[in-house]
carbonic anhydrase
Amino acid sequence: MTHTTAPEPTPSPLSPFEVWERLQIGNARFVSGEVAHPNQNAERRSSLTEGQHPMAVIFGCSDSRLAAEIIFDVGLGDVFVVRTAGQVIDDAVLGSLEYSVDVLQVPLIVVLGHDSCGAVTAAMESAASATTPTGFVRSLVERITPSVLAAQRQGLTTVNETVEEHVKQTVSRITEHSRTIYEAVEENRTAVIGVTYRLAEGRADLVSTIGRV
């Protein structure tokens, strides 16, 4: 009896810059209300049954207003999405990001935060009152608190300013905690960028980069 092995993923032909450019174009369509809803038909669905070749991994907040495929106007198979409240990093997140880079060979990691973030607000309130929430929410707050303190050291006091700093800190922590991703960036196989989403405008703004973008 013979065994067949799954085909190797095909590296994306796009550079990190080209991927970000495509995401920006999709976001511009979303902002203007002229969305194209690409790659969302039956033909596209059928084409993905044997594998996936996403152009980016988007690690974002779980907030219901932050659906990555919608705000970047992409479709099935276009982006690999990882979400936690406050885009908090844990072992599962890092494992998912490493999988996207090493196995799926994705050239761009996007860290996606948003204004008025409830998780960041909770961390700010916890730091101000010197108290912590109960249950597993405490873990979320504790993981965001270093970003809150970093923002305070810079004189940043608003939630949205702190969100932006948290995005920047998260971009740095990904490469600091994952040797796999650090090496991929060093070898120019991928890049990591930080983006903040404006709820009212629907706009995604670049705020941080590591690697060639």
Remarks:
- Residues 1-7 have pLDDT under 50 and may be disordered.
